[in-house]
Amino acid sequence: MQLNALATLRHSLLFALLLPALALAHGGPSNQVRPDDVRASVFGVRGELAPPPAGVADLKFREFFRLPIGPRGLEPSAKLQSLDGKRVRLIGYMADREEPAAGFLILAPLPVSIAEVEDGPADDMPASVAYVHLAGFADKTLPQLPGLLEFTGTLRVGSFEEADGRVSTVRLQLDASASRALLHLGEQAIAAKH
Amino acid sequence: MSRNRFTRTTMATALAFALASTAACAAPTVSRLTPPSELFATSGASDQVIARFLTGQRFDLQATVRPDAGTTIAAVEFSVDGRRVVAKHGASSLVTTGLVAGLPVGTAVASVRAYENSKPGVHTLTVKATQSDGQTVTAAGNFEVVGIEGEDGRKVKNIIILLGDGMGAAHRTAARIMAEGYAQGKSKKSLAMDTFPVTGMVKTSSLNSIVTDSAPGMSSYVSGNKNANSQEGVFPDDTLDAFDNPRIEYLSEYLHRTEGKALGLVTTSDVFDATPAANAVHTANRGLGTGIVDQFLDDRHLTGLSVLMGGGRKWFLSNASDTTSPQAGNGSQRTAGSDYVLPADIVAGWGAAPGAKDPARDLIADFQSAGFKYAPDNSTLQSVAGDAHKLLGLFAFSNMNVSYDKIGKRRGNSTVVDDYGFPDQPMLDEMAKAALNVLAKNEHGFVAMIEGASIDKQAHLMDSDRWVLETIEFDRAVQVAKDFASEHPDTLVIVTADHECSGAAIIGASTVTTDALVAQTTGTHTTKDQRDAVVGTYDAAKFPAYAIVNDGYPQTTDIDHKMLIGYGANADRYETWLANEKPTQDSQQPFVKAAPLNTYPANASVRNATTGFLVTGQVSGDQAVHTASDIPLSAYGRGAWMFTGVMDNTDVFFKVMQATLGGVQKPDFE
Asked: CA of A160 to nearest chain B CA: how many angstroms apart?
């Protein structure tokens, strides 16, 4: 964890130095949406969370896997499996990735920062994360969204090969309007820098 | 004479100079000669320190040879006492790729695997390398072969090593004060380890530092040789591969090969951790978990492994995706990057399994196919241990929870183990009992290593209440081993540590009540309040009296006027003197970042930051560190007397082997 933090710090410094040249080219730490903008959007969590709308179930990260842990490792909980294909709301943090992939973000139960180039497959991310996929826009990379976020979409449970080469267990597929709104939020951030 | 049995004989220094000086005038150079010796390191100036091997104990010979620019190394040959060493078929190599940075082009690492020598005494090891232009270089080192004396003494059949990781004298004392109580200046009762008839003091330094880590700390006891920090069962080399280092045969391997003894490894840590691994697996990187756990099974024909118990289930689960970020859907930590493949010369020389990079391997299933009963929790352990001839117990994903929290669950007043997802974990004494029951079924005897791993881990975290309870739990396992030895008199039991951790010391006792300590954690609290008004030294400490309940542990560690612990090797911490309801996060847990574990204190530098006073550390980082202080060793059973005095940790290996192979001889203290 210390190594990761150091690596991230090193990268932040690097970005600060190269900022004029790289601000547009890379979705790294310099390319972050302002916290106020996130909070003001439909994805920001402000104050007490309202109950989910009709037809949407809340799912917590701690509810992903069965407890106690099974003799052969983690197993998906009955609740997770029962929500496969259903509309679900997840609350979490966007994993801050050194090399963000296009078309999705990783939602984690707490803020994590992954220095993939420096540290390789570090074990900073817990098993209970969700890959939040945009509808379309598979070529669009999202800037970092700070703070607590909420996403509502269709839950998929299984084993999915992701574009970054990883295998995920839980996906949340956003619908077209949410995807557009998310992309718009990201583009605002990029525009605001000019 | 027997007094000098384990000390090496002096070698003729003149001979050393003659052999080493030939290196100076040749063009290529020998920059490393293994086994390491002062003779080689000082080019013949000194021969005071020397690697020692038991008669017939196998080890690898290796040399790193640097050629002149534009040339290569054509041939390397080793000689012992002037006689050329002929490797077993396929058991030698000349490696020129995959070397560490900074070596000249063409540098070669030459090895002869699994060499053995049965002639006691000091031997000269010479390496002669020939360069492609015909120039040669010769360099010399030495090693000693220690013989076994007598064949007629009573022999030890079973060896039980109880390893309290990080357990120095203070850890033992603190456990005694808490568990046994003091009055009139005397302890009312004794710890089990206090009742052992013989105690010695052990020097713990590693090959490359006065302060060891747990890998060489353990491997010194069971290989008779010093290893470098973070390495186990090997000497350092100049290649990048962590599984190709020059090996030294372990106690388990020697005794399985020659006597058919079984090996049992029992720990409260993750089973891949340094202490258990340093009994059976040879690697230069103690962190390569996938390869380490694979070799536990793959090389059981070399070690006799029959019992493996502890935490670490995450290394045994199939991970087809080969990524751990995020971790696989089943929580697996297996990766190709931490797995092993052995070079052909090690496979040929040692008969080791070649290995494969197979993160998708289902290692639990492979253990079961090999005849191991698998216990994922204490209930299963209790039901299968009776009939099992081989036993695998994996009670947590990484390190097991500590006794403070396991006992809290059993008493119904803590949910920590539930938060971790493993509500039914055994105590170390329960694991020890099950392990000895299984191992005793081997008619040829056994080697058991039983580790109280979190004495060290909680001392690192400066969580005083937790490491004292870990020591009490460990002592209950000591009692199990002592009982076994009483019933099986051909058993030797050793209680020791790999090193001291944290510079722990009992500085006195609180002069106030628990309520007063709690009151100080709110509102304004100052060092004056929380230290000066609380820490009772000398007479003011009196005799803290803990109430011990039927399960053997204190009802609470937060008694009025409780014992207070200070640290001489500490990092910054905030101190309230009160027990922490929640343990400090263990970064090796797969779910440490997920609720609810992410609500646990991250480390000692933030734990109690709003409730305690700051004790400034003498070391950086957020953990207390190991120290070079000698540690106590106590022995019981057959051959126990041999373990008195001040000894090096490598001496223990030769004493155990003498008692096992040659038999215990009468003491000669004159």
From this structure: 10
Burial class (CB in 10 A: 0-12, 13-18, 19+), B94: middle
- Asked whether the beta carbons of residue B592 and residue A61 sit closer than 8 angstroms, the reply is no
Number of separate domains in chain A: 1
Instruction: Indicate the domain borders of chain B.
Output: 2-146
End-to-end CA distance of chain A: 35
Scan for tokens 């619908």, then name that residue. A175
Query: Is any Cβ of chain B less than 8 angstroms from the Cβ of A84?
Result: no
Instruction: Give domain B2-146's CATH number out of 2.60.40.650, 2.30.29.30, 2.160.10.10, 3.30.365.10.
Output: 2.60.40.650
Residue type, A35: P
Per DSSP, B661 falls in state I
- Using left for φ > 0, alpha for ψ between -120 and 50, and beta otherwise, residue B637 falls in left
Place of tokens 């263990």: B586
Count of other CB atoms within 10 angstroms of residue B240: 12
Backbone φ and ψ of A68, nearest 5°: -60, 165
A189's enclosing H/E stretch is helix A176-192
Backbone angles phi, psi at B35, to 5 degrees: -65, 150
* Interface confidence: ipTM more than 0.85: no
> Residue B584 class from Cβ within 10 Å (0-12 exposed, 13-18 middle, 19+ buried)?
buried
Which two structure tokens, joined as six digits, stand for B407?
């006992």
Residue A109: closest C-alpha in chain B: B594
* Among the partner residues B380, B421, B594, nearest to A61 by beta-carbon distance: B594
DSSP B71: -
B538 phi and psi angles, rounded to 5 deg: 45, -125
Distance CA B270, CA A15 (A): 39
pLDDT one digit per residue (tens) for chain A, 194 residues: 333 333 333 333 333 333 333 333 333 444 678 888 888 888 998 888 889 999 999 999 989 999 899 999 999 999 999 999 999 999 999 988 877 878 999 999 888 877 666 555 445 677 889 999 999 888 888 889 999 999 999 999 998 988 877 888 999 999 999 999 999 888 876 666 55
Position with higher pLDDT, B32 vs A9: B32
The tokens describing B456, both together, are: 């060290």
